[in-house]
Amino acid sequence: MNPIVIAPFSHSDIRDWPDEHFTRLVGLLLPRWAGEFRIIGTRSQAIRAAAIVRPYDASRVLSDCGRLDSKEMVSLVREAACVIGNNSGITHLSSWLGRPTVCIFGGAHERSEWRPISFSARTVTRSIGCAPCHLHRAADCPYGKACLTGIDPEHVADVVLEAIAEGCDGEMTHGA
After folding, report:
1. Residue 10 and residue 6: Cα distance in Å, rounded?
2. Domains of the chain: residue spans and CATH
3. Over the stretch 19-47, which tens digit does the pLDDT of each residue have?
4. For residue 56, what pLDDT band results from cuts at 50, 70 and 90?
5. What separation, in Å, do the N-terminal and C-terminal C-alpha atoms of the chain show?
6. Angle (CA) 165 169 174, round 5°
7. Are 148 and 18 in contact (CB under 8 A)?
8. What is the C-alpha separation between 85 and 87, in angstroms, rounded?
9. How much is the average pLDDT of 153-162?
10. Exposed, middle or buried, 140 (CB in 10 Å: 0-12/13-18/19+)?
11. Residue 20 CB: number of other CB atoms within 10 A?
């Protein structure tokens, strides 16, 4: 069974869904998906990834942060049952490769311009009045990134399972 690949880091904290939301998401998906969960990122993101995987069985939930070269990362994404991530290069790569992709998209950028675009991609977002804010750092957001913190892990889990079940045969945007 192909793994669910999770890319929880974007190199810009204004675009990152909270780590604890990713932890909760994995917990929601574990009883509903028999395969592995692979967390990907850079070596510098390994500590954050460890906090996401720590509560779960290490034989099913693994951190590959800093362990894969570019070719191995592309291969893992290409074989994924679904790729889940923020507005980042990995979600764009995944959708370009035609893999079921769930992009958790915050309000820093214009969604219509920057979301992954393909028939295999789904965007989960929360529209709020200040978006797009064009901020570059989470510390500058006066609302505590409400555009991302308000996206419910339960909703994302449903979208992920739907994407896998349907093979993402059409692009859909889901509001939270």
Report:
1. 12
2. 4-169 (3.40.50.2000)
3. 999 999 999 999 999 999 999 999 999 99
4. very high
5. 29
6. 75
7. yes
8. 7
9. 97
10. exposed
11. 12
